[in-house]
Write a structure and sequence with these properties.
The protein is of the alpha/beta class. It has helices at residues 7-14, 36-49, 66-70, 79-83, 119-130, 147-154, 167-189, 195-203, 213-223, 225-235, 250-267, 281-288, 293-296, 301-314, and strands spanning 23-28, 54-59, 95-96, 102-105, 136-141, 158-163, 240-247, 271-278.
Length: 323
């Protein structure tokens, strides 16, 4: 990522003039229970403490719990009021927290139909997220590879993948990245006139030597170099940034580099390691008390680890911040 002097400069290099000012961070992962909400909320707290106006959007439409991780009561305002027309402005659903400069928008606990959001309502939500007035908008995503989850993930400027060292989490993280890869291609294939070509290639993957997702891009480049190069540019805006959670050993920490190397080879896309979070019973105790970790256990090693991740995310904009 190109380092720039301030947030407005960064905005102009990524979305063009006149675009919303918010930098969107998406926190995803293929498996539930890997710490997506924990990471989202604590990054949000640190960014707010740095002086950035931050909004966390709970995009886990089926089982939202951002409010719990923040130590807040379930708010009366949520997605449902906006989608039902009772709130014209999505930002009106943003609720203040005990942290200055940090707000959050909740999912609807009592409205299970939100878990099966329509394409129309999803489009409305995505448009509304783009227009939020904040320095950073953090999307806390649901588990799995539902198309709405992937679309929220792909709309972000930075794409965080949270996983734990256990085999099921690693497997599901790869599955999530693979689904995001193909969803990204799907988004642009019609625009570039590649629908028929992609369909014909994927109809006979063995004949076309499609062993890993990266082979599809190579094949498209071979068959249609001009459109293939354009697609390649679009695809390289998707950069996975890994956070390994609940690490207990050096081997667990090093796993992030292994996953990064494999994902680069597998997808042919940039992949990096954003950081790791050690296993700490303090997380469980803080959640039981409905208190954010940094308030309940400020001496936990996780404090410094999360701060390092937040600083990395904020690094292009630290001139704006007060550390």
């Amino acid at each position: 990522m190109k380092t720039v002097a301030n947030l407005s400069d960064y905005k102009s290099t990524t979305r063009g003039t006149g675009s919303p000012s918010s930098i969107i961070l998406a926190v995803g992962g293929g498996k539930g229970g890997v710490g997506k909400s924990f990471l989202s909320t604590n990054i949000g707290i640190f960014l707010a403490n740095m002086g950035f106006n931050t909004i966390i959007v709970d995009c886990d439409l089926g089982a939202p719990n951002v409010h719990t991780c923040l130590g807040e009561a379930p708010p009366k305002l949520n997605f449902h009021q906006f989608l039902s027309g009772r709130l014209e402005n999505f930002e009106a659903a943003a609720v203040a927290t005990q942290f200055a400069k940090l707000r959050f928008i909740a999912g609807g606990n009592d409205h299970q139909e939100l878990a099966n959001i329509t394409i129309h309502d999803q489009s409305r939500l995505m448009s509304a997220i783009y227009t939020l007035n904040a320095d950073f908008t953090i999307l806390d995503l649901s588990a799995g590879t539902h198309t709405s989850t992937l679309d929220f993930f792909l709309m972000a400027d930075r794409h965080l993948i949270t996983l734990t060292p256990d085999p099921t989490s690693i497997e599901n993280a790869y599955r999530f990245m693979k689904a995001a890869f193909f969803r990204r291609i799907k988004r642009f294939e019609r625009q570039l006139g590649l629908e028929a070509l992609v369909a014909s290639i994927m109809a006979e993957p063995e004949k076309n030597e499609i062993r890993v997702p990266a082979d599809l891009l190579s094949r498209i480049l071979k068959e249609n170099p001009e459109a293939g190069r354009e697609l390649e540019k679009f695809m390289h805006h998707l950069r996975f940034e890994l956070v390994i959670n609940q690490t207990r050993s050096t081997k667990d920490v090093q796993l992030a580099n292994s996953v990064s190397t494999v994902s680069k080879k597998y997808f042919g896309l940039p992949a990096g390691v954003l950081g790791h979070l050690d296993y700490d019973n303090a997380v469980w105790h803080a959640l039981r008390k409905r208190r954010p970790l940094i308030l309940e256990f400020p001496n936990s090693p996780l404090y410094a680890q999360i701060l390092a991740i937040a600083r990395d995310l904020a690094s292009p904009h630290l001139k704006k911040a007060v550390i």
